[in-house]
């Protein structure tokens, strides 16, 4: 810390002073003009609450939202990785139709705002899918069962299961386009000689892809995929618009009922930041470790 | 050594890359068990020619029959053909994510459907043949260029093909490693395998070639037995080329 302070020159102090002044002004405006009554002490109880009747701690709305966000992000990433890999391979296909279809999907998703995409996917795709599969009734059935602890652990409240499914599908479809581009870049980064060597020992295009190109490509794209995972966590806040229960949705509800506008949103921002920043540090460290090992 | 059954037969073969005329009316016959060495200045079409032999490139007109299979773009038997024709590349092209042993086993296992034990046995046999049995569990990046190329040769041998193509196998190697690779190739000569080698190693060519081929600007200019090729080539252009590379 002291060595850090010693590194600071006078321009640094000037910049810091301007920043402090700026934020001080905003603080002053909120305090003075809005006459906002801060009630930070209420926030912890919305993270972990004490149930007086049952005499036990329970995860309250914000923590449940955070867990739901993590859950959705994990499922959506797995699905996006599968879809994206297929898409990436399709983009490198020798078949023109396959290539054009993949390209169309990608360009549509890249050039339509995510919120619009989410609504379209929700109404046109996942709602229909849920109706067709009759998920609504199935989930309610499980929700009524006594012993649904395992289900709840993996999927949260079972009566919300259909909305979780549509959230995961929508998010995965959206992110798969970007995962697909990453995978395509990985596939195309493998030197031509590798494919030729695979061909020359008689491999089919499928085998060449599966045993030679993909294993090398996937290893190369792990860092950008990890970044895409972090982006996905942030993008998951969009699906609160289709009433999927996750952190942002929980915060909207909390704000509506408790009027803790600033406190709740700052806390939520903190949650997202901790998760995403933590993951990005973790990935960076893993990558460094791997570089040293190889 | 060579019987007179043709195993590769090209007639009036032409090949274009866009406007570039890479092979011009090429006629060539390789017989079963024959060792053919192809040389010529860079850009003369040597690599293109042998890459046509296993369907890595396709000619635009004329006919090419390899091991009884007619080669053309979209031919159903291209895979069957490639299983019978091995190829060693200038840049080795080993699979970097697999160990040496796995590099040798993947072809026999996935393409030929051999069991793991049988494939490993074959792999070790050919690794012995190229004199690096001790490198079996290393990754290619840990090997020297000469060792990598010998692994690449072993990888082709594991497919137990009857025809082997070598595309400038020593051009990417440091001088001190060239001989270890050439020695392995010389040892292969006695197995009766058909070999087509693109190389500028004239010492090697003199030792093993049954036929010398000289190409220039997409044409086969000279095709003759080595005694005649080196002492009394019929074309002036070939004589000049030989003077240039034999000077050093």
Which characteristics define this entry?
heterodimer, A: 294 residues, mainly alpha, MetI-like fold, 2 domains, two-stranded antiparallel ribbon, 14 helices, 2 strands, 79% helix, B: 248 residues, alpha/beta, Rossmann fold, six-stranded mixed sheet, four-stranded antiparallel sheet
Short description:
Chain A is an all-alpha fold. Chain A has helices at 2-7, 10-34, 43-47, 61-91, 96-110, 114-133, 135-144, 149-155, 161-189, 192-200, 205-220, 222-235, 247-258, 261-293, and strands at 48-51, 56-59. Chain A contains 14 helices and two strands.
3D structure, described in words:
The complex is a heterodimer of chains A (294) and B (248). Chain A has 2 domains: 2-36; 68-247, MetI-like (MetI-like fold, Orthogonal Bundle), CATH 1.10.3720.10. Helix content of chain A is 79%, strand content 3%. Chain A has helices spanning 2-7, 10-34, 43-47, 61-91, 96-110, 114-133, 135-144, 149-155, 161-189, 192-200, 205-220, 222-235, 247-258, 261-293, and strands at residues 48-51, 56-59. A two-stranded antiparallel sheet of chain A has the order 1-2. Chain A is globular and about 75 Å long. In chain B, strand 7, helix 6 (175-189) and strand 8 form a beta-alpha-beta unit. In chain B, helix 3 (100-111) crosses helix 4 (116-129), helix 3 runs parallel beside helix 5 and helix 5 runs parallel beside helix 6 (175-189). Chain A binds chain B through residues 191, 193-194, 196-204, 207, 211-212, 215-216, 219, and chain B through 54-56, 79-80, 82-83, 85-87, 89, 91, 93-97, 106-107, 110-111, 152, 155-156, 159.
Structural class of chain B, please?
A: alpha/beta
- Cα gyration radius of chain B (Å): 18 Å
Average pLDDT of chain A works out at 87
So how many helices of chain A? 14
Structural class of chain A: mainly alpha
**Contiguous helical run count of chain B:** 9
Question: What is the straight-line distance between the termini of chain B?
Answer: 32 Å
Strand order in the sheet with the most strands of chain A = 1-2
Mean pLDDT of chain B comes to 90
Question: How many domains of chain A, as an integer?
Answer: 2
Oligomer: heterodimer
**β-strand number of chain B:** 10
Q: What is the string of SSEs of chain B from the N terminus onward?
A: EEEHEEHEHHHEHEHEEHH
- As a percent range, the share of helical residues of chain A equals over 70%
Strand content of chain A: under 5%
CATH superfamily of the largest domain in chain A: MetI-like
């Amino acid at each position: 810390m002291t060595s850090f302070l010693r590194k600071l020159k006078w321009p640094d102090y000037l910049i810091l002073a301007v920043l402090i002044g700026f934020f001080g002004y905003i603080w002053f405006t909120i305090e003075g003009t809005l006459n906002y009554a801060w009630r930070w002490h209420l926030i912890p109880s919305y993270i972990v609450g004490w149930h007086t009747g049952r005499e036990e701690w329970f995860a309250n709305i914000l923590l449940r939202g955070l867990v739901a966000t993590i859950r959705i992000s994990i499922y959506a990433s797995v699905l996006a990785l599968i879809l994206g890999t297929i898409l990436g391979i399709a983009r490198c296909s020798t078949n023109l139709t396959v290539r054009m279809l993949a390209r169309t999907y990608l360009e549509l998703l890249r050039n339509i705002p995510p919120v619009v995409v989410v609504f379209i996917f929700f109404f046109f795709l996942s709602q229909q899918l849920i109706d067709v599969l009759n998920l609504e009734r199935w989930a309610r059935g499980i929700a009524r069962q006594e012993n649904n602890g395992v289900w709840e652990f993996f999927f949260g409240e079972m009566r919300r299961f259909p909305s979780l499914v549509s959230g995961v599908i929508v998010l995965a479809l959206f992110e798969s386009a970007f995962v697909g581009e990453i995978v395509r870049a990985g596939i195309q980064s493998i030197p031509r000689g590798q494919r030729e060597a695979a061909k020359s020992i008689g491999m089919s295009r499928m085998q060449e892809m599966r045993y030679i190109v993909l294993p090398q490509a996937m290893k190369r794209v792990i860092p950008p995929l990890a970044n895409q995972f972090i982006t996905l966590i942030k993008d998951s806040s969009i699906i609160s618009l289709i009433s999927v229960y996750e952190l942002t949705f929980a915060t909207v509800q909390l704000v509506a009922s408790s009027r803790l506008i600033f406190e709740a949103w700052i806390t939520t921002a903190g949650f997202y930041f901790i998760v995403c920043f933590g993951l990005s540090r973790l990935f960076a460290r893993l990558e460094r470790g791997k570089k040293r090992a190889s | 050594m060579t019987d007179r059954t043709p195993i590769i037969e090209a007639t009036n073969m032409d090949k274009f890359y866009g406007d570039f005329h890479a092979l011009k009316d090429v006629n060539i016959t390789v017989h079963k068990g024959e060792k053919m060495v192809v040389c010529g200045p860079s850009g003369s079409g040597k690599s293109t020619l042998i890459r046509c032999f296993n369907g890595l490139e396709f000619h635009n007109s004329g006919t090419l029959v390899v091991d009884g299979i007619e080669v053309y773009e979209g031919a159903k038997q291209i895979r069957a053909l490639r299983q019978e024709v091995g190829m060693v590349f200038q840049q080795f092209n080993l699979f970097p994510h697999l160990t040496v042993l796995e590099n040798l086993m993947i072809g026999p296992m996935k393409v030929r459907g051999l069991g793991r034990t049988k494939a490993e046995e074959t792999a070790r046999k050919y690794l012995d043949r190229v004199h690096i049995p001790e490198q079996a569990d290393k990754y290619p990046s840990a090997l020297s260029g000469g060792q990598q190329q010998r692994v690449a040769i072993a990888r082709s041998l594991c497919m137990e093909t009857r025809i082997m193509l070598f595309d400038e196998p020593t051009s990417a190697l440091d001088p001190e490693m060239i001989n270890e690779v050439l020695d392995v190739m010389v040892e292969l000569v006695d197995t009766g395998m058909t070999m087509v080698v693109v190389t500028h190693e004239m010492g090697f060519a003199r030792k093993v070639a049954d036929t010398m081929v000289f190409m220039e600007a997409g044409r086969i200019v000279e095709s003759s037995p080595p005694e005649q090729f080196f002492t009394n080539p019929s074309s002036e252009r070939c004589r000049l080329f030989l003077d240039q590379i034999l000077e050093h």
